Amino acid sequence: MSGLRAPSNYSEEPPRHPSLMVNSQEPFNAEPPRSALIASYVTPVDLFYKRNHGPIPVLDDTERYRVSICGLVEKPLELSMADIKKFPKHTVTVTLQCAGNRRTAMSKVKPVKGVGWDVSAIGTGHYATSIWGGAKLADVLELVGISKLTSVSPLGGKHVEFVSVDMCKEEKGGPYKSSIPLIQATNLDAEVILAYEMNGETLNRDHGYPLRVIVPGVIGARSVKWLSSIDIIEKECQGFFTQRDYKMFPPSVNWENIDWSTRRPQMDFPVQSVICSLEEENTVKPGKIVVHGYAVSGGGRGIERVDVSFDGGNTWEEAIRYQKSTAVPYVADDTSTGDKWAWVLFKAEADVSHTTEIITKAVDIAGNVQPENVAVIWNLRGILNTSWHRVRVECV
Ligand code: MTE
Asked: Is the CB of 176 under 6 A from ligand 1?
């Protein structure tokens, strides 16, 4: 594809917000301070976590930039950004979470491989696209002869692969890529979109300008940035990030006995909640403590409950949950008042008179609950740390 340039070094990186905590400079991986996440329901673009595997591409959105839709399709197609922007804009509010969120805490059990993250490899954005009337990937795929709700295309395609242009060492200098099942891509209700805006602004370079995929309810790794092609393929993507990364193994698997083929690529993320108004270690005066945080589950499963303990897990109280504003009560699964794919923020308070642990655990509408300890879900890649989030408060 023309109109694209993937630098091989880091001399053309975009400017970034100074308050981001940088976990790796090259490639650039950074997250905001945890307190920034609860300052607003929608995370400001400049504070949104940035997760990259190579230098940021230098692209434009002129006629030179085209996305091809090819592979097992009857009528391959190329779209320019002008083609895409001709159509009405669809907006969906989505919480994107990296599978590596909270990896640093998991690595304290036993070392894991991967960039360390605190609790902020997560954020909520308004993404917009305008593909073909409905703005959904499902509508685009119809243009190449694949109907809605199709699990096998007429030419035998079962997966949709998204290929980028960035150069990643894990792909031996090739582009980042990943895939999702065709049935998800062709399901309007799954709201998979080709996004060119974030929070009402043109996507910025860090987040995939000019066009990226957003796969709601699924680990961030499948939301491929700087889209170059959409390939309809028979087997799931054979690239590194689908086959040899972002899979969850049991604690018994190590780098000597690992067999990547035994596990499926991770898609939905599990139920998660985190306290953001306190650090891991805190010193407080005896009295009332108010805690704020976020809770979210994958697959569009709403948050049924957030339990908070102010005494190390002996007793629990239910937190108040809200999305857009504290004034609007959140009802899980009610899409007339709530955002299906987005987090809830929560608030709970209690008197604390002695040194203790404050803990949060969330329950989603399927009754899934966070595991009590990180050790039982330890895995060598350090992904999906969704254990109870604990912060220590020392009363002085
Ligand atoms: N797409 C490309 N092309 N290259 C990448 O490195 N990282 C993935 C995904 N898409 C990545 C990518 C991962 S692991 C995550 S968590 C999200 O992008 C992060 O998106 P963000 O940087 O916009 O927050």
From this structure: yes
